[in-house]
Design goal:
The chain contains 1 helix and 28 strands. The protein has about 325 residues and is mainly beta. It has one domain (about 25-330): YVTN repeat-like/Quinoprotein amine dehydrogenase (Methylamine Dehydrogenase, Chain H, 7 Propeller), CATH 2.130.10.10. Strands 1-28-27-26 form a 4-stranded antiparallel beta sheet, with no helix packed on it. The protein has a 4-stranded antiparallel beta sheet with strand order 2-3-4-5, with no helix packed on it. Strand 10 (about 125-130) and strand 11 form a beta hairpin. The radius of gyration is 21 Å and the shape is globular. The protein starts with a helix and ends with a strand.
Length: about 325
């Protein structure tokens, strides 16, 4: 049977329409602006009740997401010369750690009080930071491959040197760190193509994982069940914290970069964010994609884009994101 020209065109139109419909991006249920400016960095508390962001002019602002109102404005002295580039909440949401290139600050969120500043030695820069529950311990990843674990009450410092061992590395940047809620265990990943789970009481490596490229993102499950380790290309894996055995590998068709990652409280899901708008929920057991979104891009950038700074699940289990556009967005799975 030969189709007439009008019928052919109608079929082509319908095919194009159906394809375009399947490619329509889901919109966020709620979109809350945390700043009129773009953000330098941002973070979410574990339940997404709080957001913190840093901009070139406002220093650090901690916002109550549930009320849409700022709680505190914090600063590393001159916010222009000491631009805060890293922020991280404790797992209980009661403390915030911040860092510019050479200084780290710790803040108590019940009243916004600063609990201390730590300065790096000359030539050393801060690559990543983490703080334990109750603000008892902080972890500072450095560009020389070293990691400092600091206990606030006693002032004890343990220096982890695991990422300095590869003499063939072009540089020894430690790119990502995560800390267990009790502050004892640390997961770190760096340019040496390795990630380590180690004990801060002894400095002993409990598990090590090797990647084919730089490790750029790690995450620890708050319940102590899983860890996540991802490199700059395609290898992104979930492991059992206790045994070190691989549970799943994220099913990535091409290379994919991660800027944020967090496990759900029930241990079923891993949510990740990327430097290219992408947010994905993965099945922990299988590594399969379950849901996917693109955060709202910056309309003034060409091409339109946004970096996902942090991801979390709300108390109702809904995905929440904060991005470089200055938006906190709530998504429907």
């Amino acid at each position: 049977m030969t189709l007439t020209h009008p019928v052919k065109y109608l079929c082509i139109f319908l095919c194009i329409w159906l394809v375009s419909c399947t490619e329509v991006q889901k919109k966020p249920e709620i979109s809350q602006s945390v700043t009129a400016e773009g953000t330098v960095t941002a973070a979410l508390s574990d339940t997404s009740a709080l957001a913190a962001f840093s901009s070139t002019t406002s220093g650090i602002v901690v916002q109550d997401v549930t009320k849409g109102a700022p709680l505190f404005r914090l600063s590393h002295q001159d916010p222009v010369t000491n631009l805060v580039t890293l922020l991280n909440f404790s797992s209980d949401g009661q403390f915030l750690v911040s860092a510019d290139l050479r200084h780290v600050g710790l803040w108590q969120l019940s009243d916004g009080k600063n609990l201390g500043f730590w300065s790096m030695q000359e030539g050393i820069t801060v690559r990543d930071i983490a703080v334990s529950a109750q603000g008892k311990h902080i972890v500072i990843a450095q560009n020389d491959g070293k990691i400092q674990h600091i206990t606030l009450k006693t002032g004890r410092r343990l220096e982890f040197l695991g990422h300095t061992r590869d003499v063939n590395a072009v540089d020894h940047n430690v790119n990502s760190v995560a800390i267990s809620p009790n502050g004892r265990y640390v997961l770190s990943g760096g340019n040496d193509y390795k990630s380590y789970l180690w004990d801060s009481e002894t400095g002993q490596v409990l598990h090590s994982f090797t990647h084919p490229s730089r490790v750029i993102k790690v995450a620890l499950d708050n319940q102590g069940r899983f860890l996540f380790s991802a490199d700059s290309r395609k290898q992104a894996e979930i492991y059992d914290v206790r045994t070190g055995n691989k549970i799943s590998q994220l099913q990535i068709e091409r290379s994919m970069s991660f800027s944020a990652a967090r496990f759900s409280d029930d241990g079923k899901w891993l949510i990740t964010g990327s430097p290219a708008q992408q947010v994905v929920i993965w099945d922990v057991a299988t590594g399969k994609r379950v849901h996917e979104w693109l955060v709202t891009p910056n309309p003034n950038s060409r091409p339109a884009n946004a970096l996902v700074y942090d991801v979390a699940f709300s108390t109702q289990g809904q995905p929440v994101t904060v991005s470089s556009v200055g938006l906190v967005e709530l998504w429907k799975p």
